[in-house]
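Appendix B, record 7
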Amino acid sequence: MSRAEVRVGTAVVGKIGKGFALLVGFTAGDNEEKCEWMAEKVFGLRLFLDANEKMNLSLSDVGGEVLVVSQFTLYGNAEKGRRPSFVGAARPEQAIPLYEKFIGSLRSKGLNVATGEFGAMMEVDLVNFGPTTLWIER
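C-alpha cells (predicted):
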C-alpha cells in the first residue's frame, strides 16, 4: 500500500494516491495467461486495513489505484561474478506486449492504472504505508 509517482527526466509520467506500486518484470516463459492471472491476483489482494485494523480490504474496496513500472532487473542473476546477468528477463519484443496486456487486464477490472515508460530511465518515488511488500509470481 503506497503513494507513488514515476518521472522520466523532469516529467511526471505516472502518479497514484492510495494504492499499489508494482514493479513488473517478465521472463521468456511468461505469456498472456500469466498476465491475466497476475492482474486477477493484484485486483483481489486484501492488503488494506478494515475498521478492526486487519488486512481485509482490496483495491476496489478502498478506491485504490495502481502504478505499474516495468523492471526487467527483477530477473537479474548475481550468483556469479560482480555484474548481474539479465538473460532470464524477457527481451523487449516479448516483454512490451506482456506489459501492455497486464496493464489492460488491470484496467478492464475498473482500476485506475498509471504507468511508467517501458525501457526508459525512470525515477520512482514511493511512500510505503506499513510493512507490506510482496513478490507475486506463478
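Remarks on this record: The two ends are 21 Å apart (CA to CA). The chain has a mean pLDDT of 94.
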